[in-house]
Amino acid sequence: MNLIFSADANWGLGKDNQLLFRASPDMRHFKAKTLGGVVIMGRKTLESLPGGKPLPGRVNIVLTRNPESLEGSLQQSLEAGLHLWVCRDLDELSLCLGRLDLPSEKVWVIGGAEIYRLLMPYCQEAWVTRFLAAAAADCFMADLDTDPDWRLAEEGEQQEWENLRFRFDLYRNERAKELPLV
Ligand SMILES: NC(=O)c1ccc[n+]([C@@H]2O[C@H](COP(=O)([O-])OP(=O)(O)OC[C@H]3O[C@@H](n4cnc5c(N)ncnc54)[C@H](OP(=O)(O)O)[C@@H]3O)[C@@H](O)[C@H]2O)c1
């Protein structure tokens, strides 16, 4: 299982339940990595997606402590042929992942801040789009440069898109735990 996220210079992730930057190279990168796999997200991130709908071409697993609140989304997803699974805790998530039985590199944790915090100990890699500018964020990722479990494995070349400078970096978790499969 891997993390994928974009962060600003201060590891900011978002503001007002939206991304800080919407850069097409980052969107293409995210799509190329996750298409055909499983994406795990928190209920707030689901709400932040266009139309509040799950992502097509992927199995979407949404974590919420109140699954009843997503009954409408489940019904709409079914009608639209989108794959939405809802889990209320880590045990249910383990159960879902066990049933899907996909290789770990096809399972992506896609946010937001709460869910990254919850699942990062179980992730082997973090694919980070690192924007070099600082934005006014209201939620943050842990600083992987100072986290003793994580190390920068590959620093991407600096790129530019519409005056925004960014890199695609890869971090590895040297003490990744197994998510216990129920
Ligand atoms: N930069 C990026 O790559 C990126 C990616 C994704 C999101 N984001 C940003 O991140 C922000 C949203 O992050 P967030 O931290 O506010 O919300 P979030 O992580 O998307 O969702 C939080 C929700 O997840 C559920 N949850 C959390 N822990 C749980 C657990 N242990 N078991 C079951 N359910 C659990 C709860 O839902 P209930 O309240 O329904 O119980 C909680 O309110 C937005 O600004 C978004 O744009 C950024």
Biggest sheet details: 9 strands, mixed
Regarding quaternary structure, how should these chains be classified?
Answer: single chain
Distinct ligand kinds: NADP nicotinamide-adenine-dinucleotide phosphate
Binned, the helix content reads: 10-25%
Shape, principal axes of CA atoms: globular
CATH superfamily: Dihydrofolate Reductase, subunit A
Instruction: Round the mean pLDDT to the nearest integer and report it.
Output: 96
Overall number of strands: 12
Helical/strand content category = alpha/beta
Look at the structure and give the CATH class. Alpha Beta
H/E series: EEEHEHEHEHEHEEEEE
Number of helices: 5
Task: Indicate how many domains the architecture comprises.
Answer: 1
The CATH topology is Dihydrofolate Reductase, subunit A
Distance between the termini: 16 Å
Please name the CATH architecture: 3-Layer(aba) Sandwich
Explain what you see:
This protein has five helices and twelve strands. The protein is α/β, with parallel strands linked by helices and 182 residues long. It has one domain (2-148): 3-Layer(aba) Sandwich (Dihydrofolate Reductase, subunit A), CATH 3.40.430.10. The strands form two sheets. Strands 1, 4, 5, 6, 7, 8, 10, 11 and 12 form a nine-stranded mixed β-sheet that branches. It has a three-stranded antiparallel β-sheet with strand order 3-2-9, with no helix packed on it. β5, α3 (71-80) and β6 form a beta-alpha-beta unit. Residues 5-6, 13-14, 17-19, 41-45, 48, 63-66, 69, 88-89, 110-115, 118, 139 line the site of NADP nicotinamide-adenine-dinucleotide phosphate.
